[in-house]
Amino acid sequence: MIPAHVPDEPPLTYADSFDIPVLFRNGPDKKPRRQWRTAKHKAWTGSDGFPAADGWYAPTTTWREIIKAATEVGRDVTPHLQNQPRYAHGELVARVSPLYAYLGAHPVTPRHPVSGAKGRRLTWNPVYAHGTERSAKNAAGYRLGMTMTEWACRSLLGLGQTEHLELGGPVPALYDTFKDPKKKLPDLWGLHETEELYWLIEAKGGDVGLRRLREGWAQLAAGSKALGAYGHRTVLVGASVRPDDDLFLTIDHDLHPGQAPLTPAGSDADDEAAGLGNLEDRLGDSDDALIGAARAQMLAYLALRSAPASQLRTVPVAADRTSRRRRSGLTTPLEDNSLTLAMRADARGAATGTEQHALRVGIRSVGLDDFLSCRIPGTEVHLGMSRKLFAACERLHEEDLAIAPRTPGLRAEDQPPADLDLSDEAQEEQRLTQRRIFREQQEEARPRLRPLLRDAYERGAASDWSDLLRRPQEPELDLEGDESLLEAATPETYVAVSRYALPPRTRLGRFVWII
Question: Per the record, which residues fall in region Disordered (predicted)?
């Protein structure tokens, strides 16, 4: 049982900010012995790449930023959901629920205070520490590792959209090398705009010791060998936490000089923005960035598309996308977005007695847009997006639906009966082959997709939500807001979490830690 001295108390209400100790170093080493508590940390001032010096840093982030990373990282399962979009909700639940189930927070008083630190850090909660069996801990460690790796690479270090390496890696001519099922390769790859380098990334999570880090470094070495003469950086992120300790990251990295990166596979050679930086910042002038952003948000689109009308609402945000451009992290907390807050207040003042359609027209005339949003069932997470991105996702989904019928052997009903004697590894290899076929067909369609998605994106700006959703009624426009939600947005997407369901503060034994 959980010890009696651990109080049975509800989650506390507080702003969702946490400090995440991060150690940068140039290769795997032993787990630092409580240096995440005792070392003198440097303040994190933001970076478009790796900091100038290795060592300990203490960046602060939000739960919204962590959840955003959790929903977007990892294997693209949307090819399996073309005909069953409602199951997108289940995949999103799987990505965020381990974090809600097993993470808590505790207050800290650092031995070496860092300016701007919040004095709260994440840890495993008592359920994980005292009541969770090994398999569930392993699954939670995997999800934690993938999430915090995505957060570190994209929110801290400015990496563009990550891709799962299992689909072939960044260089088309080397796809077959990356696809070798006998090779243990890293998890992810990305293209870093400022460094002008490919990144190969491996994620580890849980009680991450030297043995697991060395395994990850070996996987990166195999990926580095496959990438060959192209300049790249290898990045190993260990998201390490044990009960009664702080969650901290080790980021081991190495630089491999070489040839400049190629234009992303299938992209327009004249499209310099393709694949670089934050895709949403480039949608106005890059067709390939638009395709990439729509594909990255397809899981959220399917969840919105399939949600019951009663669960949908639209939330007003400033139509000026530049007010939400990346400054630090991926998202802009809306409590920090003074333009949106001021416009919402003005709109509320003029809204009394106004019917919904007129209200929608009115807010758009004063510079507000309304993003479609719904709560993901089974979670306290709300996801959403703009009508322009929704329209682009819808067009991309229609094109994806047409791939299977014209690709022999891709549909499940066209597959030979399952061989029950096949090992789990052999069955996984079959599924991986199907996903690769699907992705190859998607890339072949890219030249044709560019004008189609651009047209949909531009037309979406003037479309009603009832037309985009193909439903007779518009979702309710929520001008009053929900005080229980902590909201954030990017240029084209929306995420909110319930402040009452944040990781609860965890009391560690009978002591107050002074570190």
Answer: 258-279, 315-334
pLDDT (tens digit per residue) in 29-40: 888 878 888 899
The answer to whether residues 396 and 290 touch, using CB atoms and an 8 Å cutoff, is no
pLDDT band at 513 (very low <50, low <70, confident <90, very high): very low
Residue 60 has a CB neighbour count (10 Å cut-off) of 19
Burial class (CB in 10 A: 0-12, 13-18, 19+), 127: middle
Q: For the chain, how are helix, strand and coil distributed in percent, rounded to 5?
A: 40, 20, 40
Q: Is the Cβ–Cβ distance between 161 and 253 less than 8 Å?
A: no
**Phi, psi values for residue 222, rounded to 5°:** -65, -40
- Give the pairing type, strands 22-25 and 248-256: parallel
Extended strands (E) in 26-66? 55-57, 60-62
Contact indicator for 162, 71 with CB cutoff of 8 Å: no
355 — phi, psi (to 5°)?
-75, 165
Three-state secondary structure string covering 395-462: HHHHHHHCCHHHCCCCCHHHCCCCCCCCCHHHHHHHHHHHHHHHHHHHHHCHHHHHHHHHHHHHHHCC
Residue 465, H or E segment: helix 465-469
CA separation for the pair 48, 152 (Å, rounded)? 12
Cβ pair 203, 154 in contact under 8 A: no
Helix (H, G, I), strand (E, B) or coil at 61: strand
What predicted TM-score, i.e. pTM, was given to this entire model?
0.90
Q: Whole-angstrom Cα distance, residue 212 to residue 480? A: 49
- Asked if 251 contacts 152 with a C-beta cutoff of 8 angstroms, the reply is yes
* Cβ pair 252, 27 in contact under 8 A: yes
Of 48-52, 159-163, 272-276, 354-358, which gets the smallest average pLDDT?
Answer: 272-276
Residue 65 and residue 328: Cα distance in Å, rounded?
11
pLDDT, position 386 = 96
- The overall longest dimension of the chain from CA atoms, in Å, is 68
- From first CA to last CA, the distance across the chain in angstroms is 28
**Do the beta carbons of residue 68 and residue 486 sit within 8 Å?**
no
What single letter denotes the amino acid at residue 326? R
Q: How many CB atoms lie within 10 A of CB 181?
A: 13
Q: How far apart are CA 465 and CA 104, in angstroms?
A: 38
